[in-house]
Amino acid sequence: FAFPAEVRRIIYTTNAIEALHAKLRRAVRTRGHFPHDEAALKLLFLVLNRTAKEWRMPAREWHAARAQFAILFQDRLNP
Fold first, then answer.
1. How confident is the model at residue 26, as a pLDDT?
2. Can you tell me the distance from the alpha carbon of 53 to that of 38, in angstroms, rounded to the nearest whole number?
3. DSSP 3-state assignment of 14?
4. Above 90 in pLDDT, residue 39?
5. Distance from chain centroid for Cα 38
6. Angle at 7 between CA 5 and CA 50, to 5 degrees
7. Residue 69: partners with Cβ closer than 8 Å, 6 or more residues away
8. Rg of the Cα trace of the chain?
């Protein structure tokens, strides 16, 4: 409870993160074996790029949270 409600809502939103992790796990599990680490990284890169194209809307509370972040961390955010 150290942060305002708007910030907590953004920080603790795990549905989007879990959905992304599920897509990455599914891609790795489907492929199964990788000849080297670079092949796995390429696959994850492609999955992330494809997933990024599907993202349409920011979180509903993002504008209020961004204002709170600007107040709390004014030295870290660029205007």
1. 93
2. 23
3. coil
4. yes
5. 22
6. 130
7. 7, 77
8. 17
Q: Is the pLDDT of residue 63 over 70?
A: yes
Is residue 68 within 8 A of residue 6, CB to CB? The reply is: yes
Write b or e for each residue in 50-75: b if 16 or more Cβ atoms lie within 10 A of its Cβ, otherwise e. Answer: eeeeeeeeeeebeebbbebbeeeeee
Is the CB of residue 28 less than 8 Å from the CB of residue 43? yes
> Distance (Å, rounded) from C-alpha 55 to C-alpha 25?
19
Provide CB contacts within 8 A for 10, sequence distance 6+.
59, 61, 62, 65
Please write down the long-range contacts of 51-54, taking CB distance under 8 Å and 24 or more positions apart. Answer: 51/20, 51/23
Half-sphere exposure for 77 (CA within 13 Å, toward CB)? 11
